[in-house]
Amino acid sequence: MSSMLPVWKLSMYNDFDSNEYRRDLQELKDRIEELMKSIKDDSLWREEPLKILEEILPLINRSFDLYENLESYTYCRYSTKTDDPAAMSELNKLEEESLPLKQAMVLFNNRLAESATGPEDWKDSSVLKEFHFFLEQSLKDQKYQMSPAEEDLAADLSRSGGSAWSRLQETLSSSLNCEWDEKETKTVTQLRLMGSDPDRAIRQKAWKKELKCWESCETAMAASLNGVKGFSTTINSRRGYESTLQKSTIQARIAPETLDAMIESMKESLPDFRRYMKAKASRMNLNQLSWYDIIAPLGSDSRNWSWEEARSFIIENFASLSPSYSDFAKKAFEESWIDAPPREGKVGGAYCISFPLQEESRIMTNFDGSFTDISTIAHELGHGWHHEVLKKAPSLHRDYPMTLAETASIFSEILVFQSYYAKAAPEEKTTLLESSLSDSNQVITDILSRFLFEKELMERRAEGELPAEDLKEMMLRAQNATYGDALNPEERHPWMWAVKGHYYIQELGFYNFPYAFGQLFGWGLYSLYEEMGEDFEPLYRKVLGMTGKASAEECAAAAGIDITKKAFWQNSLGMIRRQIDEFCAAE
Ligand SMILES: [Zn+2]
Q: In the chain, which end has fewer C-beta atoms inside a 10 angstrom radius, N or C?
C-alpha cells in the first residue's frame, strides 16, 4: 500500500545548496546583523526610543519568517530521513545560525525594560499600538531572564545539552526495530501502528515486541530523559521560575486557575471514561482491557480506507463548516502538501509545519488506512488552516501558545467526525462512536496520566537522577491513577516515557495538558457552532486570528467563553459523556 501513497513536494527549495536556500540563509544572517546593530545603538535608544522600536519590529518579523522557513524545510527533510547526514548537519548549522537571533531577543527584552518608554507611549504610534501585546509580553519575559551573558551561554550549551537529548530520543526510537517473523523485521513505529489491528493476537504480539524494543534502550532513554529534565530544572530555576509547571502555564498563556479548573474537571470525568472502557471490554468479550486493546477497533468490519477515499471524505466533510475550509483541504491534497507513507528512517506520528514565505504548510503523517489516520489528517489540516487564517499576519502575531495551537486541529477532528456520524449507516455508527471515544480517552485519560507522571518526574528530578526502574514504576502508578480498574494491571506500558518525544523537548515542559485543553476547548467551540450554524465561521476566524496576540482567556472571551470556571470544562466533558452514554446504551 505504501507505494501508492503520496510523498510531499518540498518545492520551496531544491536542496540545501540551491540558490534559493543560500539566498534566504544569507538574508537571515544580514537581517540579524542589522537587528543586533539597532538593538545595540545606545544613543538612539536614549534619544528616540519609539523610533528605534518602530525600526526593530519589522526586522524581528522578517528574521523570524526567514528562520522559520529554512528550519521548516530542514526539519521536513530530516524527519522523513533521520539517517540523512546532510539534513542532520544542516539542522545543527541552522540552530547555530539562530543563536544570534535568540541573543538579540534577550538583549531586546533588556533594552525595552531599561528604556524610558511604556505602554502609555505606544498608543501614539500605529506600529507600536499594533504590537502592544508582544511588547507587554517582552516586558513580562524580561522578568524571567538571566543576564544577557548567561542567556548566551545557556543558548550555546543547549545545542549539546537540552536539544541534543531530544535528538538522541528521536534517533534511537526511529532506528528501533525487531524481528517480526522469519521473513520480516518491523520498526517500532510499525509495531505501534499495529495497536489498532483488529486481530487481538497480532496486537498482543506487537505490544510484547514493542516493549522489548524499549527495554533494549531503556538505559540510554533514561539518561536522555534525566539529561533534558535536569537541564530544564536548572535553567528554569536560574531564570526565577517557581517551577517548570509555572513556566509552562506562562508559555501556554493560561492562568493557573484555568489549568486547575480543567485538571479538576478531567479528574471528575474519569468514572465516565472507565465506564466506556468497561463497556468496550464487554463488547470484546473480555473481563478487562489490556494496554493493546485501548485503541483497538471494535467489530470485524473495521474499514480500511484508501488514500483516495480519505481525500474525498475530508474535502466533503470540511464543507460543513464553510466552502473556504473545504477548498483549503483540496489545495493541500492537490498541491502535494502531504507526506503519507510510513518508511524506515521516518519519525513516527504526524505534524503540520508552516512556510511563511510561501504562505503554505506541509503535513507529515504515517498513513495506514484506519479511521484514526483520517482523523489525524483532519487534525493536521486544522493546524494548516490556523496557519492559513494567520498567513498575512506578521510573525510576532503568529506566535500562539501550545494550548491554542491545538484549537483548530481538534475542532477540525470533531467537525469531520460529527458530520460523518450524522450521515453514517446504523451499523457503522458504533464503530465510529468507538473510534471517537477512543481518541477522547487518549486525550483525557492518557494525557492526564502523562501530566501526573511529568509532575512527579519534575519534582523528583530536582532531587537527583532517576533510574529507568523508577521511571517505569512512576509511569505505571500514573496509569493506575487514571485508567484504574478499567485496565488489566498486568498488561500496561511502563515505557511510555521513552515513547513520547514530548517529554524530551527542553523548552517545552508539560507538553501534554495543551492537548486536553485543545480537545475540550474544541468541544466548547463545537457546541457553540451547533448553536450558531453558519454564523459561527466568522467568530471562529476571529478567535483563531487572536491566538497570536492575546491570552487564552481573552481569546475564549471573544467567543463569550469563561475558561477560568469549571462550568466551561464540564460542559465540554458533558458532550463526550453523551457519546459514552450512547455507546453504553447500545450494548
Ligand atoms: Zn496537533
A: C
